[in-house]
């Protein structure tokens, strides 16, 4: 009897020791299983919600001002700005959904406070806005490439009204295809209890693979094309300026200055557009990495703030760097619309510009 008790005690002690060693090894290897992580710290959620609120206010205001600026001034009625407005609409739609994200994030519930249908719409808008934004960046890059590297007549021959319309339609067709893909596949487009927001959550591993394939092929391919366009432009500008310096001496600077001034304006606009896409890539890269790497889920809510910022920061860049937008934004903010350069027919109608001009004569 004593021998049996001794064996049982020895077996139990051995089992406990093996369990302890296994637990220690799992802890050292970072594989300890525990409850799934949930973004349930209300203090952190309030911080993220406050940041998103600031982005939503400035993003909506800035994107609306950008569209209104293009409408009010003929100076901004350019081919490039057609694509800029397209980009602004995509960014504005994303900013418009942020209030619903904020409401769910600060709500002290497990299922959110907005209706399921609206939550689904907010989730789908993330697909729609992202796809529309990335194609708009590609269209802007292609426009800038053609404007800088090709003669003016070839540029206008390429970007006719018909082709511009086709480009814009294709951009939104791609955005709608992204939404349709989410609907017809097994993608959860409801409320995410992990992050406490309306967020697409891929539950089927096969669907996850397809989504990852799309993101790393089509979307990445589009971004690579954007970078190729800007790289080709910078190489062209460098060689062009080097050629001018070699061809003309100091005694012939008048002709050089005229041509350089004309080119410098387009180069400045191009640099501004490159800054926009560079900031966009910097903002979305951490977001995409967190979607791919599950172990980074704890920082995902903060990374999502940078993604939201990518859709709101463009108007600030236009006001800071773009010479034409800056000239129009200033009188708009000062509520002095009569001082907007090259007023459009719409602005003339509402400000009575023509009637004042007729009275002067």
From TrEMBL:
Keywords tagged on the record: Cell membrane, G-protein coupled receptor, Membrane, Receptor, Transducer, Transmembrane, Transmembrane helix
GO cellular component: plasma membrane
UniProt-recorded Gene Ontology molecular function terms: G protein-coupled receptor activity
Domain annotation G-protein coupled receptors family 1 profile: ranges: 62-318
First-listed, main subcellular location of the protein, grouped into a coarse class: membrane
Membrane topology: Multi-pass membrane protein
Transmembrane segment boundaries: 46-72, 79-102, 122-142, 163-184, 220-238, 273-293, 299-320
UniProt subcellular location: Cell membrane
Pfam families on file: 7tm_1
InterPro entries: GPCR_Rhodpsn, GPCR_Rhodpsn_7TM
Protein's UniProt name: Mu-type opioid receptor
Species of the source: Holothuria leucospilota
């Amino acid at each position: 009897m004593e021998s049996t008790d001794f064996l049982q005690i020895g077996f139990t002690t051995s089992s406990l020791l093996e369990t302890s060693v296994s637990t220690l090894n799992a802890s050292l290897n970072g594989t300890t299983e525990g409850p799934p992580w949930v973004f349930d710290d209300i203090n952190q959620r309030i911080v993220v919600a406050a940041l998103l609120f600031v982005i939503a206010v400035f993003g909506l205001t800035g994107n609306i001002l950008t569209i209104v600026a293009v409408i009010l001034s003929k100076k901004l009625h350019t081919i490039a700005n057609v694509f800029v407005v397209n980009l602004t609409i995509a960014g504005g739609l994303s900013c418009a959904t942020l209030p619903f994200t904020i409401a769910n994030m600060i709500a002290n519930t497990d299922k959110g406070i907005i209706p399921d249908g609206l939550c689904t719409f907010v989730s789908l808008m993330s697909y729609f806005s992202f796809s529309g934004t990335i194609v708009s960046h590609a269209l802007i890059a292609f426009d800038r490439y053609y404007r800088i590297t090709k003669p003016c007549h070839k540029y206008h021959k390429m970007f006719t009204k018909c082709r511009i319309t086709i480009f814009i339609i294709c951009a939104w067709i791609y955005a709608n295809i992204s939404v349709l893909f989410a609907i017809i596949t097994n993608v959860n487009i409801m409320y995410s209890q992990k992050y406490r927001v309306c967020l697409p959550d891929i539950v089927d591993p096969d669907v996850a693979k397809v989504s990852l394939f799309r993101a790393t092929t089509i979307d990445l391919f589009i971004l690579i094309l954007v970078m190729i366009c800007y790289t080709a432009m910078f190489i062209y500008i460098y060689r062009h300026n080097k050629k001018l310096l070699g061809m003309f001496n100091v005694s012939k600077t008048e002709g050089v200055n005229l041509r350089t001034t004309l080119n410098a304006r387009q180069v400045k606009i191009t640099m501004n557009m490159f800054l926009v896409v560079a900031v966009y890539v910097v903002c979305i890269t951490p977001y995409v990495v967190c979607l791919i790497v599950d172990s980074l889920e704890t920082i995902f809510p903060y990374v999502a703030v940078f993604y939201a910022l990518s859709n709101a920061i463009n108007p600030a860049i236009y006001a800071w760097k773009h010479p034409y937008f800056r000239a129009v934004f200033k009188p708009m903010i000062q509520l002095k619309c009569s001082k907007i350069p090259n007023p459009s027919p719409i602005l003339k109608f509402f400000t009575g510009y023509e009637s004042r001009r007729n009275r002067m004569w």
